[in-house]
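Checklist before submission:
- one chain only
- standard amino acids only
- sequence pasted in full

Submission:
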Amino acid sequence: MNSERRYGTRILGVGDNDDSENEDPVVEIEKPNTTSDKPQSEDQSGRSPFQRDLDRIKYTKEFRRLKDVTQVARAGESYLYHDRLSHSLKVAQVGRRFAEYVIQQEEGTHTISRELDPDMIEAACMAHDLGHPPFGHLAESTLDKLLQEKTNPYRKENDLDPTLGELPENLDATDADNIDAYLQVNSDELAGIRFEGNAQSLRILTRLATHRDAYTGLALTVGVLLGVGKYPYGRGEWFNPDAHKSLDPWPDEPKSVEGFSKGKFGFYEDDENINKAVRYAAVEGDESISGRAAAAGIMDYADDLTYAIHDLTDFYMDGRLPLDRLLREAFAELDEKDQEGLEEADYEQAPRRELEELHRELEYDEEITTPTEVITSLATSAIITGENVSLLNPFDGTPQQRNELEAFTSFLIEYYLNRIYYDDESDHELVDTDDAYISLRFGEQECELYLSDRLEEQLSILQQITKYYVIRQPSLIAQQRGQQRVVRETFEALYDEASKDDLSWSAVPTPYRNWLETEHSHVGNLGNDAEKRARVVADFITSMTEPQVVALHKRLTGDNPGSLQNEIIR
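Returned file contents:
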C-alpha cells in the first residue's frame, strides 16, 4: 500500500442530509482508484494527489490573505519582518526538506515513504495557519472571548438559559478551558461555542473555502488534512480525570493528558464528523488510531523551528533584540579551544548582564538546559559560519553582515533538521537522552515523531527570547490594545447586524448573509441562533486581511465611511 492508497482519499466536504432524524452533517468522501499498484495521478499533467493539494492551496484567496496577517510585528510595517505568508512559505520549505532528508537516509523504507511524502508535508505546512484571524494570536483570543460571551449560557453577558446544570462554586464562568473540562466529564454537551485558530484552519479547508470539485471546502486528501491536525482532539479532551484522586470538589488546576495542551483543540463540535471521516478514511475503516500523524508532528516542528530562528534574526536586524551582545557575553562561557581563531580585537567584550536577565525572566528546566547554554551554542555557530564574526556587532546592514546572518540562519536550520534518529528494530542507535534529537517511532500502521526534552527546551528558550525583548515592549503592547479594540468593536457591530429581522437591510455581505437566512451546511447544525450569528461573524472577520478589518471598523463606527464604490470585501 503506497501513500496514495492510504492517504489519497479526498474529503469532499459537507453534503445535504436527507435523514430527518439525524441532524449531524453528512461528510462526502471520494476514495482513490485502487485498481492499480502504480502511484495514482489524477490529471493529464501527471500530478499526484498531494501535488494537486499543494497547488490548490497556493491558489486560494485564503492563502493570499496571509500576506496581510501579523506574525509578530504588524503586517506591512517593515520588510524586515515576516508576515504569516512568508512564515508559511518557510515552514513549508523546512517541512519538505525534513521529509526529503529522512527519505534519503532511509530509502526504500515502506512506512517512511508512506507517512512522510514531501508533497503531502509541504501542503500541510502551507495550510497550517489559514485559520489565523487578522492580528494573529491576539485576535484569536479576543474572538474566543466574544463567542463565549454571546453563546455560553453561564456568562452574565447574555440571557441564555443554562440547561447544563450548575457549575461547581470554585469554577469561574469566564474560565472557558476549565468549564470545557468539567462539562466533558459531567455533561453530554459543552457551553456555547469557541474560536481556535487550528480548528478554524480545518473549518476553512473543509467548509468555507471553495473548489469546483467539492461540496464544501477544497476537497483535500486525508493525508494533508491529517498533517494540518496539530491537535487531534476536541474541546475539553485535553483534561485527564485519571490524574486526580478525586473530582469532588472539582480541582482548581485540572491536569492535562500527557502530550495534550490545555485549552487547545483541533476541530469544533459541529466539525467532529469531519474529523472522524478524515481518520476513518486514513486507516480504511479502523478508527483506533490515536494521537497525531507523523506529518502533523513534522509540520509543528517546522513551525516552531522557523519562527524561533527567524523571529530571532528579524528583531536583531531591527535593533530590538541584542543578539550581538548576547553572543559576546556567551563567549566568556567558551573554553580556549572553542574560541580558537577568534581575536578579541574582532569584538568588544561584554560583561554578563543580558544573560543574567534571561536567567531570571525566562521559564526553563535548568536540569535540561539553560539560556546561557543555548546562547553559547549560538555563539559557537557564529564562529563556525562567520569569517570576521560581524554578528558580534549591532546590525548595520553591510553585505558582509547580511551574508554572515544568512549563513548563521542556514546553519541553525540545518543543524536542527539533521537531528533525526530512529526507534525501531533497525540498526540505528538512539543517542544519549541528554542530547537534542528527534525520534521517529514506528508501529504496525503508522509512525510518530517525538522531540527529546532537551530539543524542546532549546526551542522554547529561543522563542521566549523574542517574547522577552519584543512582545513585551510598550510600543507593541499599545498597538495590540488598539487591534484588540478594532476586533471587538467590529465583531459587536456585525453581530448586531446579523441579528436583524430583515437581513436584506444588514451590513453583513454575502455569502455570510445567506448562511444566516437558510439552514446552510456551514452553520446548520449549531445549537441556536446566537451560536449561528456568532460563528458566521467570526468566519467573516477571519476571512479578512488586517487593512480590510481596519477599514470596515472605521466604516461601521463612522470614523471614516470611505467610498461607496469600495465594498472592502468581495
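Reviewer check: The chain has 21 helices and five strands.
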